Amino acid sequence: MNDTSQARHRPGWLNALGLLAIGLFAVGAYLGLVVSPPDVGQGELIRIMYAHVSAAWVCFLAVIVAAVYSMLYLWRGRPVDDVRAVAHAELALLFAGLTIVGGMTYSKPTLNTFWTWDAKLTLTALLFALLVGYFVVRGLVDDRERRGRVSAVVAIVVLASLPFNWMAAEWFRTLHPAKSLDPGGVTMEASFLRILIFNAVVAGLIYLWLALERTRLGRLEAGIEERRERVTGSREAIDV
Amino acid sequence: MSELAPIIVIAGKDLRQELRSRAVTVATLFFAAITLLVLAFAVSGNGSLLADIAPGALWTALAFAGVISAAQSYAAEGEENSFEQLLLYPVPRATLYLGKLLANWLYLAVLAVLMLPVTAVLFGLPVAGSWPLLLLTLLLGTLGFALIATFYAALTANLRARESLLPVLMFPVVVPILLASVRATSALTQLGNRELAADWLQLLVGFDLVYLVTCTAIFRFTVEE
Questions:
Q1: Facing residue for B169 by CB, picked from A137, A141, A160
Q2: How many CA atoms lie within 13 A of A184 on its CB side?
Q3: What is each CA distance from B118 to A179, B54, B112, B128, B153, in whole angstroms?
Q4: How far is residue A29's CA from residue A24's CA, in Å, rounded to a whole number?
Q5: What pLDDT score was predicted for residue B1?
Q6: What is the largest CA-CA distance in chain A?
Q7: Residues of B with CB below 8 A from A129's CB?
Q8: Closest partner residue to B172 among A119, A126, A153, by Cβ?
Q9: C-alpha A197: how far from its chain's center?
Q10: Is the pTM of this model over 0.95?
Q11: I need a labelling partner for A183 at 20 to 30 A (CA). Which of A21, B56, B70, B169 fits?
Q12: Which residues of A touch B218 (CB under 8 A)?
């Protein structure tokens, strides 16, 4: 299979990308923890915002990319698109978890509670549950083609629920603050905004690096699975 | 009109089948009623709390009953492999979905209309004031629920552990629909705030449209064999 022979040799630029992402992450942490001035309202707590908001944005991006690869899989039927969709869905789950943990860290000192059944928080918890469901489905289907198709369908439904999460802070004005970045206007002060954008881009770079690594790994796994099926002629032997 | 006819035929088939056997009706009607009774009993003695949780109780009972009815609508097809023959009909797969959806929706809407007075009596919920909007809430809420339930029931119909998998997969998706339905119901009954209810109803219409388009568009991938 052409896919696996390409994946077997680890490209050098992947290491370079990883090193760049980690290096820039250190710069972003320095900007957020040292350079950034304390906020008038929240004081030093503004520093959590850089990590929390970056994680949330990357999570949304990963859900969209996973769904796009899922659509491509349904459309073209190429196994590599399923491998890519899984890689991005895993990172969506990871960053959804980070968003929730970061949000709880942020809200305990600012809102004096770790968790509240605010619409935005509830929908983010549900997004996490939806992504877990994606992997539950994958674990239950043995046939590769069917597993890819069924989980792709689930990924697209997850995408369909995303706009409600995105708009939740706007529609339900409760505890979670409204979006401060909009095409219409920016309400955040420029010094904070620049550091947030930098950190978000770095988070995106880390995401890209992990996604590429995970895709490479997934292709190797798919290659092994396919080879075993060819040698043994059955699926049962794989679990032994 | 010609596209609409097969949808009505499929929905009619499902509803006729149900009218003859009444297997689902008996199960869901009693299950929904018992859920309401258990919840009412759990907080009985506290009159104001009883009325407070009434909208949530009503929609919880409907959601539990809805999972049963949606799963059953494919289980019945599976018994004699009749779903494969349904797939052979010269209509798009989306038509099958819309037909099943229509049957499930009508069934759930009737169940909801039956459960509303039961809730009103058991929980002391004032429903008389704004029943046209309340009826609309029931219709939109059950539509959203049926959209997801019908879709996921088809997806899980052939999977291992489908009985436990269906609620696990569909509840995170329907929770926003239930949330909006509960809030709209309580806005109409307890708060008497029609503007607030209208906001939630708008959101329900949004949910219903997004999932109607999405689920109809990708339904064919859930049943392809």
A1: A137
A2: 3
A3: 42, 10, 10, 13, 28
A4: 8
A5: 55
A6: 67
A7: 172
A8: A126
A9: 17
A10: no
A11: A21
A12: 74, 153, 156-157
Q: Does B215 touch chain A (CB under 8 A)?
A: yes
| Residue A208: C-alpha distances to residues A6, A57, A67, A88, B203 (Å) | 19, 13, 16, 9, 34
Note the pLDDT tens digit of each residue in A128-150: 999 999 999 898 888 888 899 99
Q: What is the largest CA-CA distance in chain B?
A: 58
Helices and strands, number each (H, E), in chain A: 8, 0
Question: Testing the interface with A: which of B169, B179, B223 to mutate, by most A Cβ within 10 A?
Answer: B169
Main-chain dihedrals φ then ψ at residue A186, nearest 5 degrees: -110, 125
Higher per-residue pLDDT: B124 or B209: B209
Instruction: Indicate yes or no: CB of A152 within 8 angstroms of CB of B173.
Output: no
Q: Which residue has the higher pLDDT, A190 or B156?
A: B156
Is B191 strand, coil or helix?
A: helix
- End-to-end CA distance of chain B: give it in Å, rounded: 29
- For chain A, positions 112-171, list CB contacts with chain B under 8 A: 119, 122-123, 126-127, 129-130, 133, 136-137, 140-141, 149-150, 152-154, 156-157, 160-161, 163-164, 171
Asked if A140 lies within 8 A of B161 by C-beta distance, the reply is yes
ipTM score for this prediction: 0.86
Give the pair of three-digit tokens for residue B211. Answer: 């999932």
Residue A167 identity:
M
| Distance in angstroms (rounded) separating the CA atoms of residues A131 and A176 | 22
Amino acid in position A4: T
A57's tokens: 């944005």
Sort A159 into a burial class: Cβ within 10 Å, 0-12 / 13-18 / 19+. Answer: buried
Q: A-contacting residues of B 24-83, CB under 8 Å?
A: none
- A181-222: per-residue pLDDT in tens? 554 555 677 788 888 999 999 999 999 999 999 999 999 988
